[in-house]
Structure formats: structure tokens, C-alpha cells
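Crash report, auto-generated. Payload:
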Amino acid sequence: MIFQTLVNGVVTGLMYVLMASGLTLVFGILRIVNFAHGQFYMLGAFVFYVILDVAGLGFPVAFIVSTIAIGLLGLVTEKGLFRPLEGKSLIGVIGTALGLMMFLEGAAELIFGPIDRNVSTVFPGVLRLGGIILPVERLIMIGMSAAVMFALYWWIQRTKSGTATRAVSQDEYAASLMGIKKARCSLLVMGIGSALAGAAGAILGPLFFINPYMGGVPLIKALIVITLGGMGSILGATLGGLILGIVEAFAYTYLGGIAEIIGFLIIIVLLIVRPQGLFGEPFELAE
Amino acid sequence: MRKKAVFIAFGVLVLVLPFLVRDDYYMHLIILSGIYSILCMGWVLILRAGQFSLGQAAFLAIGAYTSAILALKFALSPWLGLLAGGISAAIVALLLGWIVLRIRGLYFAVITLAFNGAVQLIPANVDYLGGWIGLAPIPSFTLGGIEFIDKTSWYYLILALVVLSGLVTWRIERSRLGRYFKATANESLAQSIGIDTVGYRMLAFVIACLFAGLAGGILAPYLNYVAPGDFAVWKSIQVQIQSTIGGTGSLVAGPVTGATMLIILGEVLRAYAKGLEPLLYGLLLLVVIFLLPDGLISLPGIIRKRMRIQNKGEPQNCS
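Recovered output after restart:
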């Protein structure tokens, strides 16, 4: 029982990690919480569904197209919506992200209809290892999530643009003295962050039903994870996601539905007691 | 002179509205607009004091559930429930505010969002509070022997609360308190001249949530039920969007306009296709933020200015 719960927790946790990494990456550079991130995830799932089931182009094509498509959407969003708002009032910034969120949800509902859809199972079958049940699909999902996270880490640690991004998130002014343009960084990061959401949609969408409203809960979970891990920290998102997944899995097993509240309590307590989360930069929330 | 006439005409219209609108469906929408107007006015009050709340629906819930519990489990009059709803919401706001109001900006927004989420889950997971299905049927108000069944009576009740809320917020804005509220937006400056910024922010927050609770105390008997689904985070986001679209520069006209317009338009569009409602909210919000930052309420002023520019050379009377 305990091992099964643990495994479930890790699977859920990886979902959260995928969602949260994109969100925290964007926040680290743009200082904007992209509330539409959940909608990007939802659209990633739908693009994946359309390519796989409607166009019948196979799993790899579907995955790549969804990731790239949502990445492009992120680029457009940055250029068109977030860039003009740089430095403007909070209400404008939050409002824009929320406005985009609502707009995309409505648009998706109009285009795809409100019904649940089932994405065809590409990897059928179930593994049984000593009492633990793991559908093959989930195993693939774990593998792909891990691969995506490795790619993300490789990019941010080993490439020029990734290092530049880290520099900007640490100290924007110093980075600019080194010749790093924040604008290009913002654009790149929105692209990658959004692509991560799209990839998450492609990987995770098929595990459940997909519908235009599926973006709400992952956004909340991502918000919880980035608060826990520290806004702007990918390592924090990774650990935070796994922690939340595992804690929730055990809470659900032993407490039932009320476990849902844990995530919200985590946010509230954390922002009061340790606002920088696990790995964020310490800062003063109260003025 | 003209402004006063418009005001009076509007007042008369509002008073006789139920006799002009004979349709129960639209009266329902108008009553809902009233509820949301109250929430929006509170939201703008909090905004003026320098905070961005994404959790007003939580206080609506507290008011509604308090009223429902007192009526169903303790057989108390809904009037008492109304009062208790407001008071409980105010107390919770006091406690919450005491802890989190010193946190500013985005993080306060996130905390209120989380608070809303948490509050919604409490009755949903407690059988005594009805679970996800909720509690029903909730007895209606009676005044002087007349039970509130017809939409008309509900309309006047909610109108009374809207007017009360509007008056209170307007008086606050006009008074010293209002200037203090505005001052708290610039924290360090205000504190340097001795204004207790946290105290005033707390006052704004508690008042806003008090009215949200009172609105909840009316909502529960009106709908005849309470269920967690009506108090989701999305509702708080709706409040923010409605207020922003209406116009945050004004404390009463903007929020009321925004709430009414969006509730009615939203419902009408939703009848065609469910997705049109969030689409409308999102699109209008983006348009307002980028093109009309002072909200829809600023539109007449802008049009008047444009026309004045076009009529240049003509002597202008200051009205």
C-alpha cells in the first residue's frame, strides 16, 4: 500500500514538476506569473490530440508539434502582451495574464467543444512489479518527463543562452553590463517555458480526458509548487513538485478529499513564514 | 446642472426597474449583478488601499454558509443569518488581514487566491456543511408578513445593500479615511508622516469583506441553496475582471457598471455557447488594459473630450 502510494505520488509529482518548471522559469526572468500557463498546457494537449488522432501522424510528430506550437504561442504572448507591460502596474500585469487565461479557455471551448475527449492510448498494457501496479503509459510518461527535465537542465547549465538566462535572473543590471539583452532573454524564456507547458500537455493529456477546462487545476498546482520551491528556481520546482506529489498522494490515501486543501495551506503558510520557499532568493515581502 | 439631472433620472430608473423589466430571467441577472456589484466595490476599496485581492468570493461563501447553517441547523431567522454572515466574514477578514496584510503585491494576490481555494474546500469535504452538493432548502426572508418569493422583493433588498455599500465606500473615499487609504498606496511616504498604513489597509479590507459577507447572507436565501461550486477561485477572478473593466478610478460607478454589464452580457452569451463567456471576459479585459486603462466608465469622458476638441472655437460653459 505504502509503495503504491509512493509510486503514484512520484508520477503525480513529475506532472507537477513539468508544469511548474515552465512557470518558474518565466517568473524568474519576466517577474510575471503567467496565469495562462494552464491554458498553454491545455492547448498542448489538444494540439497533441489533433495531430495524433485527427491527423493520424503518430506519437513523435504529435509530441514535437505540440511542444513547438505552444512555444511559438509563448513567443507571441511575450512580444504582444507581456513586453508592452514591462514595469507597468500590477493590476495591468496580473490582469493581462488573467485576461489571456480566460480568452484561451473560451476560445478552446468554442473551437473544440466542451465535451471530454479521450486521446487514444499509444502504449497499452500494465506492469506489475511485486504488488505495485503501473500502467505502461505512466512509465513512458515518467521517462519522457525525466528526459524533458534533463534537457531543461542541460540547456540552463551548459548552453550560452541558458547561462545568460541564469545571469539575468540573478542580477539584471550586471548581466546587461556583460552585454546580455534582457529583451531577448525574456522572449527565449517565454518560448521555452511555454513549450514546457505544451510538452506537459502532450505527455500528460493522454493519461486523462482532455477538455477545454483542464488547465485550471494544473495552474493552481504549478503555483503551489513554485511557491514551495521558490519562484524562479528550477531546482526548487523539481523538488517542490515531487514533494507535493508525494505528500498529496499519502494525504489522499489516508485523509480522503480534504487532502486537496494541503496545497493551498502550503502557499499561505509559506508566504507568511518563508516567502522564498526552498531555494528562492531571500527577500522581504513586507515593506 | 446636467449631471444632477442624469443622476436623478438614473435614480428613478433604478427604483422602478422591476416594473419595467417584467422578465424573471433578467431580474435574476440584475439581482446577481447586485451581488457582484457589492463584491466589486469592496475589491476596488481594497485596491485603493494598495492591495490586490483574488479572494473576495471566499467572504461571499462565509456569509452565505453562515446564513445557511443558522437557518437550517438552528432554525434562526434569515435576517439574523444575514447579520451573522456579515459579522463572520468581517471577523475572518480581521484575522486573515492581521496575518497577511503586511504582504504586498503579487504575493498577497496569491495568498488570497489560495485562501479562496481553501475556503471553498472546507464545506465541500465536511458532510455537516453539505459536501459538494451543498445545503438546501434555505428559507426566505419575511418582512411584515410578506415572504420574499417574487423577484421584486429580492431586487429591492439587494438594491438596499448596494446603495448602503456604495454610500459607505463613497463616504470613506470623501473623508479623511479615504485620503489615508490612498496614502497607504505609497507605503514609506505615508508612514513617514505618521499614518498607520497597515491599520487603514486593514479597515478597508474588513469593510470590503463585511459587505461581501452581507451579500452572501442575501445570496443564500435568494438561491435557496448553498454549494461550494458557487464560490470558486474563478468567481474572485471574475470580480477582479469586472471591476477593472468597469473602471477602478471610481469607487461606485465603475464596479457597479462592470459587474452589471459583464453578468448580463456573460449570461446572454453563455446561452449561445458556453465558451463565449470566458472569451468575453478575457477579450474585454485585454482591450481595457491596453486601450482604456481607466475602464468603461471613462468612455463618456473621453468621447466628450474628443467632441470638445472637434468643436474648437465654440465657447464652452463650465457645467
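Post-recovery validation: The first helix of chain A runs from residue 2 to 30.
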